[in-house]
Amino acid sequence: MQGHEGWCGLCYTNRKGRTNASGHYGYRAPPRGQRSNHVVAITRRSGPNNAVVPTGGPGPDGILDQLLSLREFLTATEFADGTIRVVPTVLLYAEGGYWKGRIQDRAESAELWHTADTLSGWFIGLDTILGMGNGGWRATEPFNGKRRRK
Q1: Which range is most confident: 7-11, 77-81, 113-117?
Q2: What is the rounded CA–CA span in Å between residue 49 and residue 42?
Q3: Do 5 and 25 contact (CB within 8 A), yes or no?
Q4: Burial level of 78, CB count in 10 A (0-12/13-18/19+)?
Q5: In this structure, are residues 65 and 74 in contact, taking their beta carbons and an 8 Å threshold?
């Protein structure tokens, strides 16, 4: 590659477009002209989008008014002893004519999967499971507030 005898790592990486080492194969001169050093400062939006979220959970919305065990499980932000509880997440999807979903209790590092024929049946079934205090809970990795990267 360009003036080098044998193999050169810098020529190779320039050729692949990974680097831009001067004096090696594939070197590209930096563009001449006005460069912008403008940096956008990230600020909080003012107005209704920056409102404080109440700690009591969402307000009445119809179906959860009738399913008290499920509503309490999804919206409770404190344990009975007063310690802060991380609210669970819900994943719901339709597949093969069934509603399938998972509730992940991040505070207890456990998840519960449930399947039903109808959407209302999915919610009612979960409310029944949570009300009886049993179900096929599976252990998950502890939640620390950060996404896991692979």
Answers
A1: 113-117
A2: 15
A3: no
A4: exposed
A5: no
pTM here is 0.53
Tell me the per-residue pLDDT of 16-29, one tens digit each, with 9 for 90 and over: 888 888 888 888 88
DSSP string, 91-111: EEEEETTEEEEEEEETTTTEE
Burial class (CB in 10 A: 0-12, 13-18, 19+), 127: buried
pLDDT exceeds 60 at position 131: yes
Which of residues 4 and 20 earns the better pLDDT score? 20
How far is residue 70's CA from residue 25's CA, in Å, rounded to a whole number?
A: 64
Work out the burial of residue 59: count CB atoms within 10 Å of its CB; fewer than 13 is exposed, 13-18 middle, 19 or more buried.
Answer: exposed
How many residues are recorded in the chain?
150
Expressed in percent and rounded to 5, the helix, strand and coil fractions of the chain are: 25, 15, 60
pLDDT score recorded for residue 41: 54
Q: Find all residues with CB under 8 Å of 111, minimum gap 6, and list them.
A: 102, 103, 104, 105, 137, 138, 140
